[in-house]
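Summary for the lay section of the report: proteins are chains of building blocks that fold into shapes. Here we show the chain for LysE family translocator and then a coded description of the shape we predicted for it.
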Amino acid sequence: MDFSTLFLFSATVIPLVCTPGPDILFIASQAVSSGTAAGFRATAGVVLGYCVHSLLVALGLAAVVAASPALFEAIRWVGISYLVYLAYKLVRAALRPGGVQAPGTRVKDQLRKGFLTSLLNPKGMMVYLAILPQFMDPRLGDTTLQAVMLSAAFMFWCGVVYSGICVALGRFGGAGLSDARRRLVDSAAGGMILMAAGFMALFHR
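The coded shape description reads as follows.
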């Protein structure tokens, strides 16, 4: 797998990682209520949960790519449709008023709770199914290795973004996102995801 593929994949998943959801809200709540270190423990738990998703999805997608190109193409278009749906929801959310506040609920075991938060979040599995197939090409060699590398890149960006949130909240406080900033994040993420879906539909190898 070449660098350009990993770069395009990263450009696609970063807007999704930055979009406020259960993972970010849990991590932010622990950073606000218990400090930066607790936020880092929650982040580690979330990333570990995605490790399980990665193994299951990577192995399954690799088998599909190797066994049935037609089924793989069907999954690819389901994934593109899902990205369009996500973009629509984000743009619609950007039109509604209201900021985002991280709840200040403190838990005792942030690592375990973070693990369960991501493991039991069906959206996480759908993200893998929607995006990974777009960047896998059986002509480039071992599809299992490709899937594992893409999964590792996704988890890397989760760790980077979520750790940045922990540091920011620990340093500047947990005021949350204002209405204007939340609208900007949602609209920008929605637009980038929609462009990514269009690129994947038009320029698939």
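Put simply, here is one thing we learned. The chain has one domain: 21-202.
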